[in-house]
Amino acid sequence: MNDVHQLRGAFGQVDLQPEGGMIGPAVFDVPGVGRIEPLTCPDWRNRDGAEELLPLIRNLCGDFVCAPYGAPEASGDLPSDWLKGADANIEEDRWFHGYPANSLWEINGDNEGGDAATHATMSCRPAAPHPFDEICRTISLLPDGPGYAVELSIKARHDVNFPFSLHPCFSLPEKPGSLRLEIPRAGEGWTYPLPVVPEHAPIAPNRRFDSLRAVPRVEGGFCDLTRLPPSERSEILLQVPAPGGLVRLIYEQAGYAVRFTYDAQLAPCIVIWVSNRGRDEFPFDGQFRTLGIEAVAGAFDLGPAVSASAMNPIAREGVATCISLTAGQQLTTRSKIALEAL
Predict the structure, then answer these.
(1) Rounded Cα–Cα distance for residues 327 and 121 (Å)
(2) What average pLDDT does the structure give for the chain?
(3) What is the tens place of the pLDDT at every residue in 259-282?
(4) Residue 92 is part of a domain; what is its CATH number?
(5) Mind listing the pLDDT tens digit for each residue in 181-214?
(6) Confidence bin at 113 (pLDDT 50/70/90)
(7) What gap in Å lies between CA 36 and CA 26, rounded to an integer?
(8) Please, which pLDDT band fits residue 1 given cuts at 50, 70 and 90?
(9) CB of 283 within 8 A of CB of 304?
């Protein structure tokens, strides 16, 4: 039940990982382009020392769900305006990015009488007193092109307010500026309130900005983060309201684009995570590269206490930073990742 499960269809294949309920690796045939692997899936599990890593990091692969999203406790190093009212930790879940992203899921597939399944359901059932009774993801290959759709459901065991994220990690090309990031109707944004990795943090922390084309730098001036990756080693986190429910990644040199669509009423913001060889610690070793495009109801990954507070800087501007469920209530949402030739 807990073996890797593979979906195969006319346009490619996707692996489903029981560890963390993760989707990936994925390989798709994009007509007119060729074989594309859109998701980041490092293979760290068998390295010496991997057994000591947080399960989420040890098994990091592709596309996963964070519920609750972020750190289990608010950092005391945060600026004071981010800590106002931050007193609502979820004591039943002390995992970074939540128990579901750090635990084993069951996978049930349907081969429809043949050798290849085109859809399957993954499920996670935390034990009481965890606030979630069940989390399910049903993944289906798209029938008319390369990509997949996901239906996610979360059923509450008891009343809970929690930050939430869909967290796909996409490939980051080598050539600086060769990926164009499009987020229709993206509003003004926030830089992370602390330096993410101080030695490789080109973006000024705790700042507001008007456009992704003009994000303030530490040393002054601005950078255009609609063009990725940056030329320097960097670790970057930004959050922008994205009411259009669409992010498009245009890989200009490779000749294809990825469209990530999601329910913006549920997850009104995108957190952009650019990791461009910016982390030196094991297992990243100054080599890891990815582009996280996280559809969130949250205040960055600062955790339940900050995100559930109506006084955090993002919530104060009328943007939802948590989701509320009552006992027995079920949330259901759909998302899609599709590839297309340019």
Answers:
(1) 23
(2) 95
(3) 999 999 999 999 999 999 999 999
(4) 2.70.98.10
(5) 999 988 789 999 999 998 999 999 999 999 999 9
(6) very low
(7) 8
(8) very low
(9) no
Q: Is the pTM of this model over 0.90?
A: yes
114: buried, middle or exposed (CB in 10 Å: 19+, 13-18, 0-12)?
exposed
Q: Can you tell me the mean pLDDT for 59-75?
A: 96
Output the 3-class SS for the chain.
Answer: CCCCEEEEECCEEEEEECECCEEEEEEEEECCCEEECCECCCCCCCCCCHHHCCHHHHCCCCEEEECCCCCCCCCCCCCHHHHCCCCCCCCCCCCCCCHHHHCECEEEECCCCCCCECEEEEEECCCCCCCEEEEEEEEEECCCCCEEEEEEEEEECCCEEECEEEEEEECCCCCCCCEEEECCCCCCEEECCCCCCHHHCCECCCCEECCCCCEEECCCCEECCCEECCCCCEEEEEEEECCCCEEEEEECCCCEEEEEECCCCCCCEEEEEEEEECCCCCCCCCCCEEEEEEEEECCCCCCHHHHCCCCCCCHHHCCCCCEEECCCCEEEEEEEEEEEEC
What total number of domains does the chain contain? 1
In whole angstroms, what is the distance from residue 65 CA to residue 317 CA? 25
pLDDT band of 109, cuts 50, 70, 90: confident
Range of the domain at 263: 5-341
